[in-house]
From TrEMBL, chain A:
Similarity-based family: Belongs to the globin family.
Source organism superkingdom: Eukaryota
UniProt keywords, alphabetically: Heme, Iron, Metal-binding, Oxygen transport, Transport
Lineage: Eukaryota, Metazoa, Chordata, Craniata, Vertebrata
InterPro entries with a match to the protein in the record: Globin, Globin-like_sf, Globin/Proto, Hemoglobin_a-typ, Hemoglobin_oxygen_transport, Hemoglobin_pi
CDD domains per record: Hb-alpha-like (cd08927)
Entry GO MF terms: metal ion binding; oxygen carrier activity
Pfam families named in the record: Globin
Organism: Coilia grayii
Domain Globin: 2-143
UniProt name for this protein: Globin domain-containing protein
UniProtKB/TrEMBL annotation, chain B:
PROSITE patterns attached to this UniProt entry: GLOBIN (PS01033)
Keyword check for Flavoprotein: no
Family as reported in the entry's similarity comment: Belongs to the globin family.
Membrane-crossing segments per the record: none
Molecular function via GO: metal ion binding; oxygen carrier activity
Keyword terms, alphabetized: Heme, Iron, Metal-binding, Oxygen transport, Transport
SUPFAM superfamilies: Globin-like
Name this polypeptide is given: Globin domain-containing protein
Length: 143, 147
């Protein structure tokens, strides 16, 4: 499953469309993940508050979505472009890669909530593929 | 037995009471066939599934989407024994339809996305949690008779 030229175009266009709300989507996705999949909270024991809209969740959601926006710009070489982030996730954060899928799902939900008309099935499949490629690139250095 | 909080029960009843099965079912199934094209393997007899537009407009897909929602409705009306209510459906999906259970999860994810688009901000994280828990129980019950 690789990104076709069409997938890349769709992802770029949709990301441009959501750019004004990207930070909010990132924060919302993270908040949803922590609420709907409580086991993911195990990575955030150092946060006083993991609820939707809390300060650490809002801040970290922004970090994640901005990194994803960055990845859109590197869509032609995600493995190369995300090498440093892969090192970070593999050796420092040690996030079980199964969680990438969980966060991806919640990003898709946040997109659907905020852009119901634009998040068509065709956009959904391309974005889902993109997020899967990002997850794979992040997992490269794990072992 | 599955323990449901009052919030979860009320949320599920509320969501399904307000849901138009004729709209959500077709949308969710069509989305599943587009986003996860390998799921089309079960619908070879449905005619034109060649592209997203064809799938979204296919009347057999739409009809089956409604069938799926009616199946979920049974679980909504029997939340304390979804396992029992789904025993026959489970045998059907395993022995007759030969559906890989992973597909149930894929359809469940699409249903969540469609509902999120429909409900907007009313689809809060807590509502999403309740809805996905319900779907997980339905999926698990559907898998139970597989051997």
């Amino acid at each position: 499953m690789t990104l076709s030229a069409k997938d890349k175009a769709v992802v770029k266009a949709f990301w441009a469309k959501i750019s004004s709300k990207a930070d909010a989507i990132g924060s919302e996705a993270l908040g949803r993940m922590l609420t709907v999949y409580p086991q993911t909270k195990t990575y955030f024991g150092h946060w006083s508050d993991t609820s939707v809209g809390s300060e650490p969740v809002v801040k970290h959601g922004k970090t994640v979505i901005r990194a994803l926006g960055d990845a859109v710009g590197k869509i032609d070489d995600l493995v190369g472009g995300l090498a440093e982030l892969s090192t970070l996730h593999a050796f420092k954060l040690r996030v079980d890669p199964g969680n990438f899928k969980i966060l991806s799902h919640n990003i898709l939900v946040a997109m659907a909530v905020n852009f119901p008309a634009d998040f068509t099935a065709e956009v959904h499949v391309s974005v889902d593929k993109f997020l899967a490629e990002v997850a794979a690139a992040l997992a490269v250095k794990y072992r | 037995m599955v323990q449901w909080t009052e919030f979860e029960r009320n949320t599920i009843q509320d969501i399904f009471a307000k849901m138009d099965y004729e709209v959500v079912g077709p949308k969710a199934l069509a989305r599943c066939l587009v986003v996860y094209p390998w799921t089309q393997r079960y619908f070879a007899k449905f005619g034109n599934l060649y592209n997203a537009a064809a799938i979204m407009g296919n009347p057999l897909v739409a009809k089956h989407g409604v069938t799926v929602m009616n199946g979920l409705d049974k679980a909504v009306k029997n939340m304390d024994d979804i396992k029992g209510i789904y025993a026959e459906l489970s045998v059907l999906h395993s022995e007759k339809l030969h559906v890989d259970p992973d597909n149930f999860r894929l359809l469940a994810d699409c249903l969540s996305v469609v509902l999120a688009a429909q409900m907007g901000t009313a689809f809060t994280a807590d509502v999403q949690a309740a809805f996905q828990k319900f779907l997980a129980v339905a999926v698990s019950s559907l898998c139970r008779q597989y051997h």
